[in-house]
């Protein structure tokens, strides 16, 4: 038992709210302050009746202060800063003095090094208590020290990972209960349940290794690219995709300075009805908040141009602890009080109205904040003053109570439902990639950020300041405080433009039998045929779509790339499963037949690979053996196999068509039939002829047996791709039109408007009942002739 002597006047009276909601909280600590331990104690005062001079409670020993928490909940918690103490003493019990470390800190001026030394010493003297395992059969794999991060608080302790759970055990037993977590998460989780900060990169990586090894066969690959593919295909919602991106960019609900950021999508907060089919109802997602008002932007740019280094356009950020708590003050008042020294903001500056907040974001000189995930969730409590907080009175005399909603929302739940509908609607789905470019992508930094008017203070960017290099503890705290209050830009995830989501753009079929009357169909994305789904999925991220195919089991998409590789993507897991690195230059074309992969490359070779695996779609690495290699004198741009699979036709960048016998590496026939690059070659269904199209705008028919030219048709424009039945040709040109050719008359018999740019690829099923085209306009169109 310890008795605490005379307190000085520098005390902290914790507000009545804290006494009602909870007693001691780590929110009472200063930035970078640590809580070491607690002891039973008495607070002895020199004045007042003798019966009231002795107050029992607990004493908390911290790195910058000592805190006394009375047992009587009516009495306030008291906090004394060590730097204000003239002397510290105690009556020892059991030979231990709780103030030994506090005295050291006080004498050394609260040096950061001493705090760290004491913290590490305490952690080294203790270990994880394995009696807290949830199951007696659990086997521990590793243990290390770390800090658990929660809003405005970090707490040191021990981490232990077993074959079942991940545990965090606080050094100071606060909170008293242990934190044992299942490592599996559901798809809709808000990013994470526990956020750990490690002292050692090696220990962090080792812990990650254990978790990753354990989960290797249980979860899909969690990368920006894999989530992008799932989002593009419509397998995850806009809301889920934004949560994943925030998580990958180190945004967490446990860190207010890096809280998940979501966009304002609606711009209409005054109408009685919300029209989600009207583009005017939405915010321009291609611009940051600060650039939505052109008049305000001009003023900001004028200041930016006259500003000395470092330049920045906006004096505040779109996400900061203050902005997060601005929205959440009604459900997290203790955090707001901690951030603002025990006071709420002025009543007129509180989150009073959704419409007023949006208006201020458009017109205010320093307000550029975005939204948080709660605006698109299902819990509307942050919009209601359910705790009955006294948040003050506005200038008009009214009390600050529930948030005022737009006229189109009948109540908070209805408001959130309409916000969710807006986030998932067609307009937002078509433009969300533009906002991602600003927040997580290539417009976040550099010249693209300047051009997009998206430049913030250098302190907000990852790597903008190295706090570890600051030796002076006061300067370091000041810098951390500035970063904490100003906000931080998410980690950059993409360095190239983010692709647009694949959304349905189809029209009703016309009831005419001819191919010329084909027109796209108007069906929902989920109602498309399996063929259209396959083609839509081929819009792989970050890869120029040189060539793509679906394996016969419909589980794997194979994609060749200009980075010299061939990639295998799992449809079930939505991730890259394997990579074949078999060429020294771009892989221009691929083909699959009888478990063999044929690859054409600009390194002047065509190679045949044999898959050495019983099931290539299994979640394992696949080995490919090289069976044959066909050498050319120029880069190979295209290839095709005869229907029987015995002959191979190739076309080069210099216009040479070569016919090969698969069993022999020597060419059967070779003919320079184009004056430029050959875009595509294809056998006729009877294998008697080969059709080729090239940069010279010619369609050339070659006889397979003799290797002689049969016909050359000159087109008005360059044709990039085609399908044919041996006589009639459907081709796609540079203008975006589809042309139907009669080779016997060498004439175009029909033209069909299709794409707004060059048609780059075309596919037809075996029944000739479905055709899919893709173009440089980033559109994929499904065509169905009707009979």
TrEMBL record:
Superkingdom of origin organism: Eukaryota
InterPro entries: BEACH_dom (IPR000409), BEACH_dom_sf (IPR036372), BEACH_Domain (IPR050865), FAN-like_PH (IPR057496), WD40/YVTN_repeat-like_dom_sf (IPR015943), WD40_repeat_dom_sf (IPR036322), WD40_rpt (IPR001680)
Keyword rRNA-binding attached: no
WD repeat start and end residues: 580-610, 629-670, 671-712, 752-787
Sorted UniProt keywords: Repeat, Signal, WD repeat
Alphabetical list of SUPFAM superfamilies matching this protein: BEACH domain (SSF81837), PH domain-like (SSF50729), WD40 repeat-like (SSF50978)
Signal peptide: 1-29
Annotated CDD domains: Beach, WD40
Pfam families on file: Beach, PH_FAN, WD40
BEACH domain span: 216-501
Protein name per UniProt: Neutral sphingomyelinase (N-SMase) activation associated factor
Organism of derivation: Cyprinus carpio
């Amino acid at each position: 038992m310890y008795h605490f002597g005379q307190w000085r006047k520098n005390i902290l009276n914790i507000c009545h709210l804290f006494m009602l909601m909870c007693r001691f909280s780590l929110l009472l600590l200063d930035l970078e302050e640590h809580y070491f331990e607690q002891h039973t104690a008495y607070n002895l005062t020199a004045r007042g009746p003798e019966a009231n001079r002795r107050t029992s409670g607990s004493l908390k020993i911290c790195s910058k202060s000592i805190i006394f928490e009375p047992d009587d909940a009516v009495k306030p918690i008291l906090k004394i800063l060590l730097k204000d103490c003239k002397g510290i003493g105690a009556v020892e019990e059991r030979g231990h003095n709780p103030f030994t470390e506090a005295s050291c800190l006080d004498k050394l001026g609260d040096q950061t090094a001493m705090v760290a030394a004491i913290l590490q010493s305490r952690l080294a003297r203790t270990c994880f208590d394995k009696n807290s395992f949830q199951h007696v059969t659990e086997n521990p794999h590793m243990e290390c020290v770390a800090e658990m991060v929660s809003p405005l608080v970090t707490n040191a302790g021990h981490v232990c990972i077993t074959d079942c759970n991940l545990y965090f055990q606080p050094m100071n037993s606060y909170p008293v209960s242990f934190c044992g977590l299942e490592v599996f998460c559901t798809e809709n989780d808000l990013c994470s349940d526990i956020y750990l900060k490690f002292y050692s990169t090696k220990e962090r990586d080792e812990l990650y290794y254990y978790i990753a090894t354990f989960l290797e066969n249980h979860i899909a690959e969690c990368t920006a690219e894999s989530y992008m593919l799932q989002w593009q295909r419509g397998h995850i919602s806009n809301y889920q995709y934004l949560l994943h991106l925030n998580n990958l960019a180190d945004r967490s609900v446990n860190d207010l300075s890096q809280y998940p950021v979501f966009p304002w999508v609606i711009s209409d907060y005054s109408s009685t009805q919300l029209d989600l089919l009207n583009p005017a109802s939405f915010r321009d997602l291609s611009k940051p908040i600060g650039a939505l008002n052109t008049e305000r932007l001009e003023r900001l740019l004028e200041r930016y141009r006259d500003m000395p280094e470092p330049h920045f356009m906006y004096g505040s950020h779109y996400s900061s602890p203050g902005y997060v708590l601005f929205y959440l003050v009604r459900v997290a008042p203790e955090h707001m009080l901690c951030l603002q020294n025990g006071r709420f903001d002025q009543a007129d500056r509180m989150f009073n109205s959704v419409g007023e907040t949006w208006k201020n974001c458009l017109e205010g000189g320093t307000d550029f904040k975005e939204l948080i995930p709660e605006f698109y969730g299902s819990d509307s409590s942050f919009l209601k003053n359910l705790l009955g907080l006294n948040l003050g009175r506005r200038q008009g005399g009214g009390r600050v109570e529930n948030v005022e909603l737009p006229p189109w929302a009948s109540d908070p739940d209805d408001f959130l439902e309409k916000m969710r509908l807006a986030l998932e609607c067609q307009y937002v789905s078509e433009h969300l990639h533009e906002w991602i470019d600003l927040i997580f992508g290539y417009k976040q930094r550099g010249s693209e950020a300047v051009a997009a008017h998206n430049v913030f203070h250098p302190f907000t960017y990852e790597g903008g300041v190295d706090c570890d290099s600051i030796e002076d503890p006061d300067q370091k705290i000041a810098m951390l405080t500035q970063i904490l209050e100003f906000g931080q830009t998410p980690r950059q995830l993409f360095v190239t433009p983010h692709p647009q989501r694949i959304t349905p753009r189809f029209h009703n079929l016309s009831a005419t039998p001819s191919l010329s009357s084909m027109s796209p169909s108007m069906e929902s994305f989920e109602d498309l045929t399996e063929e259209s789904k396959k083609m839509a999925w081929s819009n792989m991220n970050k890869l120029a779509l040189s060539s793509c195919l679906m394996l016969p089991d419909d589980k794997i998409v194979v994609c060749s790339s200009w980075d010299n590789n061939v990639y295998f993507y799992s449809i079930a897991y939505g991730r890259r499963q394997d990579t074949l690195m078999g060429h020294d230059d771009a892989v221009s074309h691929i083909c699959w037949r009888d478990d063999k992969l044929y690859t054409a490359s600009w390194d002047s070779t065509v190679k045949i690979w044999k898959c050495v695996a019983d099931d290539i779609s299994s979640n394992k690495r696949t080995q490919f053996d090289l069976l044959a290699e066909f050498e050319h004198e120029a880069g190979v741009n295209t290839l095709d196999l005869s229907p029987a699979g015995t002959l191979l036709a190739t076309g080069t960048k210099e216009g040479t068509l070569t016919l090969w016998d698969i069993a022999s590496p020597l060419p059967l026939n070779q003919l320079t039939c184009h004056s430029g690059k050959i875009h595509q070659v294809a056998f006729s269904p009877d294998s008697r002829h080969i059709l080729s199209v090239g940069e010279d705008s010619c369609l050339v028919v070659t006889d397979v047996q003799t290797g002689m030219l049969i016909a050359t048709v000159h087109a008005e424009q360059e044709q990039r791709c085609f399908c044919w039945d041996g006589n009639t040709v459907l081709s796609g040109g540079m203008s975006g039109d589809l042309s139907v050719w009669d080779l016997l008359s060498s004439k175009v018999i029909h033209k069909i408007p299709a794409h707004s740019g060059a048609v780059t690829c075309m596919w037809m099923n075996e029944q000739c009942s479905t055709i899919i085209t893709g173009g440089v306009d980033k559109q994929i169109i499904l065509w169905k002739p009707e009979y």
